[in-house]
Specification:
There is one protein chain. The chain is built from five helices and five strands. The chain has 117 residues and is α+β, with helices and mostly antiparallel strands. The chain folds into two domains: 65 residues, 2-Layer Sandwich (Dna Ligase, domain 1), CATH 3.30.1490.440; 39 residues, no CATH class. The chain has a three-stranded antiparallel sheet. The longest helix is centred in the last third of the chain and has 15 residues. The protein is extended, with a radius of gyration of 18 Å.
């Protein structure tokens, strides 16, 4: 796995964070910036936005159209630094050292902007 990351072959397919309805069509928005731009482009849009909490909320058709279709998906390339950071975080959160887990949560709880990564 390490070699695949080092050779830049690992990508994460990123599902959209929001959906809304325009006319009879469902529109997907990948992040907060896309939602903000949508509201600029559609100032009279009155429909609510659904906050998609993860892949488990999407049926297979939505997942195929938004996350797996090469023409419309968003891919994030995994870097060595990101993999190391993720490994440390997972080891801390899932490990046996309760004090390290509590310290990690206390240090990072204020950084909720990273909750969707």
């Amino acid at each position: 796995m390490k070699q695949l990351v080092e050779d830049k072959h690992i990508y994460i397919a990123q599902p959209p964070l929001y959906s809304t309805v325009v006319g009879k069509e469902k529109v997907y928005l990948k992040d907060d910036a896309a939602k903000a731009q949508f509201l600029v482009d559609h100032p009279n849009h009155k429909k609510e936005f659904a906050r998609l909490k993860g892949l488990g909320e999407m049926d297979w058709e939505e997942l195929k159209a938004t996350t797996m279709d090469a023409a419309s998906r968003t891919l994030l390339q995994v870097t060595v630094e990101q993999a190391a950071t993720a490994d440390t975080a997972i080891s801390t959160l899932m490990g046996d050292d309760v004090e390290a887990r509590k310290d990690f949560i206390k240090r990072n709880a204020k950084d909720v902007r990273f909750i969707d990564i």
